[in-house]
Amino acid sequence: MTESTGGIYLDHHATTPVDPRVAEAVMRHMVEEFGNANSVDHVHGERAAAAIEAATDAVADLLSADPADVRFTSGSTHAIELAFSHALGTAEGSPLRVALSRVEHPAVIDMARRAERLGMATLRWIDVAPDASIDLNRIEGLLPEIDLLCLMAANNEVGTIYPVAKAYELAAAAGVAMLVDATQGVGRVPLDLSETPFDYFVFSGHKIHAPKGVGALISSVYRAENNYGLSGSHAATPNVPGIVGLGIACRLMSEEGAAEEQRLRGLSALMRAELRAAVPDLVLNGSDPRLAGNVHISAPGAPNDLVVARLRNEVAISTGAACMSGAQGASHVLQAMGLPQDVQESALRIGLGRHTTREDVLHAAQRIASAIASVRTSLERHNA
Ligand code: PLP
Question: Which residues line ligand 1 (CB under 6 A)?
């Protein structure tokens, strides 16, 4: 997808464009069907309430979840906060014993660290291998000593898909609760909450072509204690357009997600092959199973900020996690993988998406390769 400004967009792990079919429904629910779903004394409110019910069903269908467990939030960060505050409340006076992978998103890590600082949690860290994979035996070994296991469905930098269903079986057998951050995995990774009813499951609409600022927490334990809305007794006015958009986006993922993944797998293989042919000493980071649209590379000798700056108006790719972009500092994911310094410093995350075409991939690969070559040449001259 070549935009008139900003170039080819290949940063779909950061966010995705709203699908026009989603945007049409969102617009309708702002302009025409604008009722308050909590004010059902008239048709406007009734229609809004029905729209929310339909969206709830669409979310539940995509994940084979119980619609009664779906609670809409402003996104994953908000859902993670709700999940954590609920889990902390179950610890009854003693600190919650939490284990989390070192490659969780900052939304999980920051929440866990805050609880630790406040004396409300103790943390055990789950290491990853240099290819970002996680050893289930390591998780199993920790289970007797923890109350809550946090494992993401798929990593937002290197795209690694984690065995959350297997981890759940182990955790459930040990009586340990589990929080799954499925922000990158929903619609892309097979997830069946009827078979693996994770205690807390979160995701965000804007990663699946719905608007920003809407997401969900799916949890039967949270539901059981929060029947009256987020703030105790008052049910807040729901974000009807956003929730409707999330529902349509989930419906589209149910219908088209598998085919989309297959197409993206082909395109990302093409991208890797093109880059490998054009960039000497290219390093491919991460390993399978991985998100179909993820390509994560390093070009030692070409610092990533210089490469990204050279591509600025032509190809939108990223130096790392969405939340780290703009901030200086190494990626905690690549650090946890123990990658050599020059591999970390030259890491580039490329995320293909629904509207990426073969032509986009060929053109972007050529532009990325020449940006890397240009950075390497100028640094070599500078250092000569
Ligand atoms: N978790 C993961 C894996 C993510 O990729 C992101 C966003 O980048 C989040 C959580 C936070 O999502 P949001 O900013 O929509 O709350």
Answer: 75-77, 105, 107, 152, 156, 181, 183-184, 204, 206, 215, 322
